[in-house]
Write a structure and sequence with these properties.
This protein has 9 helices and 12 strands. The chain is an alpha+beta fold.
């Protein structure tokens, strides 16, 4: 632990309580070097008495060089406009009612950006500053989040451009030259507009789902769900769209426990998994529905659904990225958000989802849901 101390001045009143010291962390069993964020502490004279390991890593300044230096020398921060931060804030000579500086982006020498917040420790509410406690955090995690959000916006904008261009083109053509087209031509163009409008609606719904999942606000409205019937409806839809009926094998192990879930969101999960199996897999798509142990503690009953195919499967090195944003299989197309949303929906129900290799060599997705009834019935 890189901690130094300084003695109190001789003029200090005996009645004043001892100031908090970084070394007091040891009484709690905490070593400053074990803290995940950078910790820099300056004494009442503005000299550094603590410079932990995370601060060394973030600033690239050795602790032994920082200890004993004035705070503005050991930590020469500037704001984004190039102004010296400690001269601006003046922690020791500013307003005597200030207790902190909120977190903000500041620059280290060389232009490296860090997140900095500060706390002013006073012996009395308006007394002199006895300690300045500064925390430092690397901005890389925040930048990753910002990049992810930027990628999401760029991806959705790109996906929206194509159907909207089609909708605009066909509607403008119909309005300008309605009489020149036959009824069959008009119907074809209107069907294309309708399909593209559905695609836009689906993309916007995905964006809203992502927002709710990321913020933890995805609501689940539980109702009784016949999971076997729900799977059957999706199979019928694929057959109506041109798939062979014998490409699907549905196996239900009964009796199944009563399942309470959000039917619309479970349809979304099933639709995505079956669509992936049909589009990216080969051979027979097998759906197994079985009773199982609940993924929740203190609950015995659960329902598992396994969707597998006989295609090439997912490479082993990609298994841990399947449920992340923008992951796509071997064939391009789509936003790469479907499985991320599927995972969010399953987990919002208190369930779990996994991916592996099917017995036939293809991909195998298995999700398990607890069968708990809604709160008003328990």
């Amino acid at each position: 632990m890189s901690v130094g101390t300084s003695s109190a001045p001789g003029t200090e009143r005996a009645a004043r309580p001892p100031a908090p010291r970084p070394g007091d962390l040891a009484e709690l069993g905490i070593d400053p070097d074990q803290l995940p964020d950078g910790l820099v502490v300056a004494d009442e004279h503005g000299r550094v008495i603590c410079f932990n390991a995370a601060a060394v890593r973030i600033t690239a300044v050795p602790a032994e060089r920082a200890l004993g230096l004035p705070l503005e020398t050991a930590l020469p921060l500037e704001d984004l406009e190039g102004r010296r931060w400690w001269q601006l804030t003046d922690p020791y000579g500013g307003l005597d009612i200030r207790v902190r500086q909120p977190e903000r982006n500041l620059l280290l020498p060389g232009g490296r950006e860090v997140l900095v917040s500060a706390r002013y420790v006073r012996a009395a509410p308006t007394g002199p500053v006895r300690r300045v406690v500064v925390t430092l955090r690397d901005t890389e995690a925040r930048r990753r989040t910002e990049r992810s959000h930027a990628e999401l916006i760029a991806t959705v904008a790109h996906e929206l451009r194509s159907p909207l261009t089609s909708v605009k083109g066909f509607t403008a053509t119909l309005l300008a030259k309605w009489e020149r087209f036959t009824d069959d031509q008009k119907r074809l163009m209107l069907e294309t507009v309708d399909a593209d409008a559905d695609r836009v609606t689906r993309l916007i719904a995905e964006l809203l789902d992502i927002s709710r999942i990321d913020s933890g606000r995805l609501e689940v409205r539980r109702q009784p769900v016949d999971i076997g019937a729900a799977v059957g409806r999706h199979i019928q839809a694929h057959v109506a769209a041109g798939q062979q009926a014998d490409r699907f094998l549905l196996r239900v192990q009964r009796p199944l426990p009563d399942l309470w879930a959000d039917p619309d969101k479970i349809d979304q999960v099933l639709g995505n998994l079956l669509e992936n199996a049909v589009r990216h897999g080969e051979g027979t798509v097998t759906i197994d529905i079985t009773p199982s142990a609940s993924p929740r503690e203190r609950e015995d009953a659960g329902t598992s659904v396994t969707v597998s195919d006989e295609g090439p499967g997912i490479p082993e090195e990609s298994m841990n990225r399947v449920f992340t944003r923008f992951w796509r299989g071997s064939k391009r197309g789509g936003t790469g958000l479907g499985l991320y949303i599927v995972k969010g929906i399953v987990e919002a129900h208190g369930g779990t989802i996994t991916v592996g290799r099917a017995p036939g060599g293809g991909a195998e997705f298995r999700f398990t849901l607890p069968v708990a009834a809604p709160a008003y019935l328990t």
